[in-house]
Amino acid sequence: MSLEMDDGEEIDSLDAEINQLIRSSSSPPSSPKRPSPHGAHSHHRRPSFKLMCSLLVLSILACHWVAPIILPDVIRKASSLNGLSADSVATDSVDEENDESSSKPPMSATKEEDYLIKMYDSRLDITCPAFDENSVAAHLKQLTTSDQQQPITWYDSRSKEISSNVSEYLRIFQKLQGFDSWGHSYDDVQRGMRHFRQKYLIPNVSDNMSIYESSCGKGLNLYMTIDLLQQEGFRGLVIYGSDENADAVRVANQLLDSSILPGRVTFGLVCQADPTSIPHIPDNSMDIVISGGIDPLANPLGLDVGSSSELYGKYVELCEAKKDVDPDNYALSDDAQHKQNAWYRTQLDEMIRIAKPGAPIILEHVSYPLCESLYDGGGIYQSFFKSNIDLHDWNIDANSIAFEEDFVFRHRYHAFMRKNQ
Hints:
Layout: H1 7-26, H2 46-82, H3 89-98, H4 112-119, H5 133-144, H6 156-163, H7 166-172, H8 186-201, E1 210-214, H9 220-231, E2 237-243, H10 246-255, E3 265-272, E4 288-291, H11 308-319, H12 327-354, E5 360-367, H13 383-391, E6 402-405, E7 412-418
């Protein structure tokens, strides 16, 4: 068989040879043959060898003729596919079937990870507002009619210490026993939160969602949340937050930088802002809204008491007052709780406002009222949530409200609710 003949003549010759070999192999032998003295590699095996050689030549010629036609189209489609969003892949595939000549220009050769981050970078156009401490003080005074009011902030001094050497803190914070002044390690808190988050958070998360944390502090709770979601395989998440403490916000913005966060996550912004007023976040803009804990009011009644221990003693005294024995102190205790409720409600009002319709709103590590848990800083009863639907027209599905025991802090709870569709 000569390879110098024309392509058409070569194919005809190969076809004839193949047909002849097939006919000879399929026709029954006229008489049994004795074994060849040459052994297994005798001449009755040669047709199979010729057949293999012929098929090999045919394959080479097929690649020579067909590849230039098929491969450019395959490469073009693969390149254009890399530039498509997840939602548009199916639509574009249908368009290509209907119009075989349609194509997209290939993207530059970059890693798939880079494509994914760019594809799902859906950050909101948010600018941090100018922070006015006087406005916060005025709001607190309106709630409590006192100039001595402030929320309890456990992390003020610690945040200043961390912000002075953030790089060192970022290197070791996951190994610290009291990494957020809680007395727990990173793994302890992550393990203690896992059940609640697997039940109420993870089923509500999808790729490319936005997550906002109110009163996010140094960003550690948000970091842990993202860490868990990355382990569950979610990608393209965009995170935001706010806190009124400047040092905490400074740490959060460095801790939550996209280069430090685990996995493919886009960092939006953490702003210094009054948690009861965050107008820089648009209405109905966040897929998930959480808070790792609202700091309770330290002195709801604005009592003029010297030290913190004396202040605590005074509130314990009010809690122990009996309505029929000491009605004045009993009334003060009741008033203190109403003011605490108002403080929590104003923050939750904003969390509800910025949540998208149907979005989950999650409040973690909620303290019970001071008179219920004297060792804690004060908080709210679980009945507070449903009562605000009627009393303050909360746009919340009452049937969605659920609670779970806190396995990190003793005698606290987590709350889940969903905004109405």
